[in-house]
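Agenda item 2: adenosine-5'-diphosphate complex prediction
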Amino acid sequence: MLNSGADNSGILQAVLDCVPEPVLIIGEGLRIVFANRAAVSLCGIDLIGQLFVAALRHPAALDCVTQAMAGHERVVSRITLSENGADAVYRLTAERMENRDQADKAPLIVTLRDDSHLDGAEQMQRNFVANVSHELRSPLAALASCTETLRNMPEKDTKARTAFLDIMTQETGRMERLVSDLLSLSRVEAKARVKPTDKVNIPNILKSSALALKSVAEGMNSDILISCEDEDLYAIGDHDHLNQVFINLIENALKYGREGGCVTLNCCRQRQSGENSTIAIVEVIDEGPGIDTSHLPWLTERFYRVDEHRSRRVGGTGLGLAIVKHILQRHQGELSIASQVGKGSVFTVSLPEFPSDTAHV
Ligand code: ADP
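Presented output:
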């Protein structure tokens, strides 16, 4: 693609074709004199001799190249291009190539670096901060209004004072739960790359998770039933993190399930089709109102709730399933959700089984 008769042009072309980022060289009249393979795939074929503006139709890209051509500084700009129906964000850099004899005639080298992932991460961080602020705003506003009311309230009115103090305790609890879930999430994320190696007994973890929620179940007149095919079911895992996974799922099954109903925990071993390995499966089944299928793909996103009022009423933070997802990713496990409106939901966890010498059938 280099329109120069130089002997080294073939080598230069071969080298720059290996560069994954698009590289263009722009000559006089802002015409393209070189394009590597990545540039061809981004801007299209037959680039040589074309005007830069025709190859990359973006006003900021043209500004950048014109400025770089006029001066001798490196000019950088961020441009958004539409690729296959999705937006991609590029960092475009334009600067004159070295030519000491004819500095004003030196061509421009233009490179484009795909920064879409950075942009996505920044956007996620902005959304996260906005969500946390939103979650904290209402308990803080409630606390501020209660303290103001208490300040102006006659001391003798003990009944009203107690009612306001109760609201304050509730709102403080809500903020405590949010902070505690945020800390859990950040601890889990910090350990994301450290794969667990311990041998953990799944039925035992299920029993301790269910025990931790005994009083919650009693408060809702609900039962938790555990049914394990084999008590010797072991996974490769982090005991505390898996305990957290099952606590979050069982607590949701109680909170969103039927009052006076039953939460069933099934665990079994399953052979993976076409593979020689087995996985441990745990199902958390409730008899609640179920979840419409349109919500299922979003449930593990931070702060996603089907019914925000209900979640708040039952003390939800919107982070429980996001924590579950991150812990399972660390364990190379999976969460799948099936639900039928009016009948209930099944949250299924699968985890790689701890390899044993005994072959299972
Ligand atoms: P929350 O703290 O709000 O419970 P989660 O991340 O644990 O947050 O759950 C996200 C949302 O998924 C909940 O707000 C609720 O709408 C829905 N959900 C979770 N588990 C169940 C369930 N067993 N039955 C019905 N809805 C559920």
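Discussion summary: The longest strand covers residues 86-96.
Owner for follow-up: CH.
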